[in-house]
């Protein structure tokens, strides 16, 4: 048997590295573990041919240097804070952002493989396969109550304790769920789909531009399915990212569209209008039938919502950003350091204790903010430099038949303002691989200054900054809102407006007391529930609350048709689920009282009726005492003057 010659090893290792990259493209929509294995193979085999391959890496070293620099600064910051770690190497290897640097090694390797023209056709085919796997798995997960990844790995049967899918409402008689494909979360899946939607859109647009109507329809079908799944996915950060990168690309290539589309005729305008109206009615239908979509769009302008906790996360992040400008806090220490900041918030307003406790604080939910905090400002600036180079590459990327525009990788810039996609291995690894392929499509070094990239990055960054300056200018006492559950979203909003804020906000309280809110009689008499207060007091270990629970109801002297009586049911809530936030696993009533209402202030007082632990470690054996309320004694044929509701600072109403 003739052994392979040593001289042939570099060529074989290059091929093995290339084929591993192709298998990686197929694997990452299906399995995180498999994708990491093939990425490791791609890197490993590439290192066996340094003499042949390393010179080809040179055009791609500059962007990679920005990435490695950002990770290196996190590592240096970690070394500086060595003594503050309980177990440095355990924290660094499991939690530190710098430990993810190896993911980026695939970036220059993918770029080298894509720079060889003979490889590109095969790469594009596998990108198409990758897209179809993401799309098909997403569509399948829409109709599966089980998370497909775990369901399949468990032999197509649910394992005890597995989390179910988030319901998205019925569709044509079928129950639907938030699409997550084979991923663990809907945000991760939204990130993967975002890589492809801009490319599919551009290909479809190009077929229309070239007047190839049959091909246009062929590509329009997967585009529409992608948009439908993307809409159900509910990842608002990904929506913004995809919209931004598409807008940037289209503006950058606006000249290529001039005088290229089919001549405008009455018939063609009619066809276009027909499709626009059809799509419009389809969107309207899905919106009306999907309560989750209604809630998501309705929450875009709200601060206090079940999943919109960015306000609290950034409130805790900004003090860290100012205190650690040069050296950062160190990798994997965001939760620890932000928890220290949260103590000052809780000491001022104890009702925020549970709110801040369940707010996800493992990271900053903002890529730039995260790296600027854990690695110092320079680490965040290096990421800005990388994205400048990325958008310069997007601006100069070719748009040819046969290729797959991979400009979707740019979505992470804007989407990363609201979510740490670069800390999510399931998104970050394909991001680096696809970004490398984008660079490899045009391997020539770009030395010119990109004015468009600077303008785009500056405008989007400033818009995000101004937006959060405005949102964060709202004091915590007004940003916090007790959760209300009523029989309609309209009534819920009305009740929320009648709940007074903390006593410190005297001006806002006076304003709400002076407002008039008229509610239809049918709604005014329906029962609603209001989030109450914890049975134990801060700090941790927590001590049993000794004060009675008290609420106040204010009826304006000028009210024409106010309620004259109220029924209040005190109920216990326990075992809160962080994922669903305010929906509890078990509720049971404790007491019910009815009181007569008069003009002015009316009070309700309730004393704890169960024997609870005197001292406990929060949140164990800690419950909520919440309230179900029903007004009565008014004329249902007339609009009802809805009373103001005051829970004080901690269910400790005091008449004013």
TrEMBL record:
Q: Does the keyword Membrane apply?
A: yes
Annotated GO CC locations: membrane
Tell me if Transmembrane helix is a UniProt keyword of this record.
Answer: yes
Recorded superkingdom: Bacteria
**Signal peptide range in chain numbering:** none
Localization recorded for this chain is: Membrane
Q: Name one GO molecular function term.
A: ligase activity
Domain O-antigen ligase-related, by residue range, is 223-384
Question: Keyword set for this entry?
Answer: Ligase, Membrane, Transmembrane, Transmembrane helix
Indicate the transmembrane segments per the record.
Answer: 21-48, 60-80, 122-143, 186-204, 216-232, 238-254, 266-287, 371-391, 403-421, 454-470
How does this protein sit in the membrane? Answer: Multi-pass membrane protein
UniProt-recorded name of the protein: Ligase
Species classification = Bacteria, Pseudomonadati, Spirochaetota, Spirochaetia, Leptospirales
